[in-house]
Design a protein that fits this description.
190 residues, two-stranded parallel ribbon, 5 helices, globular, binds zinc ion
């Protein structure tokens, strides 16, 4: 297994729509294992393939840190999500703070539908359907956005986004450190 460097804002891979995964392979299985190791090392609850520089529709997640006693429904814990599609979303919207491993030190309140239904392939390439709410729904929507080239800050209004401008520039220039390995646009272009 390997810990992979995490791509940061504003690498173009983060704003590119990712391609569907077409087949299972040993290489894919290795990538999934590496992504879990990378996510746990960074103490993240989700990691999408574009965040390690691969533009394919795959993410891993483990929302267990958000579990409280009355929320143990079996849906928390490690999950591999391939080619996901949201087939239904609630009209109810909730707001909660989010962060992103590709945007160290940035945390913002983001509004999202509270409940969603998702179809996807699991790590065995078997079709699955899930209806989830609260933090689980939030993590899935955040990670699925990555596959469409959307960052959580893209959900902010222009005023909030403007306030983040200098922080974002620092991240893009590789001036922000994290406790996990980063691959900043500055470090790859030199
Ligand atoms: Zn993210």
């Amino acid at each position: 297994m390997a810990i992979l460097p995490i791509v940061t804002y504003d690498d173009p891979v983060l704003t590119t729509k990712a391609e569907p995964v077409t087949e299972n392979s040993e290489e894919l299985q290795q990538l999934i294992r590496d992504m879990f190791e990378t996510m746990y090392n960074a103490e993240g609850v989700g990691l999408a393939a574009p965040q390690i520089g691969r533009s394919i529709r795959l993410f891993v997640m483990d929302a267990d840190p958000f579990t409280d006693d009355d929320e143990k429904q079996g849906n928390y814990g490690p999950k591999t999500i391939i080619n996901p599609e949201i087939t239904w979303q609630s009209n109810d919207i909730t707001e909660h703070e989010e962060g992103c491993l590709s945007l160290p030190e940035v945390r913002e309140n983001i509004k999202r539908p509270e409940k969603i239904t998702l179809t996807f392939l699991d790590e065995n390439f078997e079709e699955n359907k899930l209806t989830v709410d609260r933090m689980l729904a939030r993590v899935i929507q955040h990670e699925l956005d990555h596959l469409d080239g959307i960052l959580f800050i893209d959900h902010l209004g222009s005023f909030r986004k403007r306030l983040l401008k200098s922080k974002l520039r620092q991240i893009a220039e590789g001036k922000i450190q994290a406790s996990y390995p980063l691959r900043t646009p500055a470090s790859t272009s030199s």
